[in-house]
Write a structure and sequence with these properties.
It is a single chain. This protein has ten helices and ten strands. It has 366 residues and is of the alpha/beta class. The protein has three domains: 69 residues, no CATH class; 61 residues, no CATH class; 174 residues, Rossmann fold (3-Layer(aba) Sandwich). Helix 8 links the parallel strand 8 and strand 9. The longest helix has 21 residues.
């Protein structure tokens, strides 16, 4: 139908607008608060659904009776003066987009490669399995044992079976055939481990950057796997595993030991996400402040206990007015120009830099 074609065309226009303004949406995180289980609502102030606009009969003006010089041709826009009105005004259009569509747009715009998963365990995909029986079906699927068991039961009930002459002759009603059902079978696992510095030098602005980046990281990786497990680690001088709300709303006043977070991260990987079965991704966010004597220990833990067991480790240094930024320099010095393939380092100076950080983090398709 023409209406369906028009609606389809309108949706294409909407998707195009999202693509054009993707950097803005990534930067400002407008959709995070609107995120549902499978949909997000995106405000698009420049679009409206095409429709007819009708005049108001009997409202005066040229063409509806005698007109005088200076009369307006049609009802015009008010100048904003006068008492409050009672008529509705123009509204911002909000368009619902699935997270799957959003991930596809993100992947296209950032030219992200597809991920090759590994491991078999709890994440599931649907497959057909022959687990039930039917009375009809092709002879190639006939279950001989079930068929003869049914024939035996029938002959015993009819008193036609003789133990001295055990002859079983199946008839049509006795035949049983294998039938398949859709079942969930294990596929590749994926786990995200977020690490964030919550010491006194990390402000609310830096945490908002982390929250926005995490939304897009979740969106992309969810599109690559059937499901994700997410673990949240926070640290100052000591580290602990927390829930999502605590992760984004905790602020401590102590010093910083990044090694404490790396030690806990290694323990979480080994206990919850063994690398032989899980695709592990670690995303660390910090302002780069670290107790000076702790840098060497942190680098050693990262090199020996984390990198060998993850698909990718991403370190995003969020610029802070209080942070020194020293740890990024320590990592670059330790790993040199020939950076470990699984290690991605980037600086996130402000919200506008989130877009480029995502491309750095996800561009390898590990």
């Amino acid at each position: 139908m023409k209406v369906d074609r028009d609606q389809s065309r309108f949706k294409q226009i909407v998707r195009g607008k999202i693509r054009e303004n993707l950097r803005k949406y990534v930067t400002h995180g407008e959709m995070i608060g609107r995120k549902g289980r499978e949909l997000v609502s995106i405000p698009l102030p420049q679009l409206d659904v095409p429709h007819f606009r009708y005049g108001k009969n009997g409202s005066g003006g040229v063409g509806q009776g005698d007109g005088q010089q200076g009369d307006q041709v049609a009802s015009g826009e008010a100048d904003g003066k006068g008492p409050a009105g009672s008529e509705p005004g123009a509204h911002v259009l909000e368009v619902e987009v699935t997270l799957e569509e959003l991930a596809a747009i993100l992947g296209d715009e950032l030219q992200l490669p597809r991920i090759e998963p590994k491991g078999q365990d709890r994440i599931e995909q649907v497959k057909g399995r022959y687990r039930s029986m039917r009375r009809v079906g092709p002879e190639s699927l006939r279950h001989f044992r079930r068929t003869y068991m049914q024939a035996l039961r029938r002959q015993i009930s009819e008193l036609t079976y003789s133990p001295e002459k055990p002859r079983i002759v199946p008839i049509r009603e006795d035949k049983r055939y294998r039938s398949w059902n859709s079942v969930n079978v294990p596929q590749a696992n994926a786990a995200i481990i977020y690490i964030m510095d919550v010491s006194g030098s990390m402000t609310d602005d830096q945490k908002e950057i982390v929250r926005t980046a995490a939304f897009w990281l979740d969106t992309w990786l969810t599109s690559q796997y059937d499901g994700l497990e997410i673990s949240y680690l926070i640290h100052d001088a000591a580290a602990k595993e927390v829930d999502e709300h605590t992760f984004y709303h905790t602020r401590e006043s102590g010093g910083t030991r990044i090694s404490s977070a790396y030690k806990l991260c290694s323990e979480v990987i080994q206990s919850k996400f063994p690398p032989s079965e899980w695709n592990n991704y670690v995303f660390q966010f910090s302002d780069g402040d670290n107790w000076g004597e702790d840098n060497d220990r942190s680098v050693s833990l990262l090199r020996e206990q984390i990198l060998p067991h993850v698909n990718q480790f991403c370190y995003g240094q969020v610029e802070s007015p209080y942070g020194s930024g020293e740890f990024l320099r320590a990592l670059r010095s330790a790993f040199g120009n020939d950076q470990e393939e699984k290690l991605v380092l980037t600086e996130i100076e402000n919200k506008e830099a989130i877009y480029d950080a995502l491309k750095e983090f996800l561009g390898k398709g590990a």
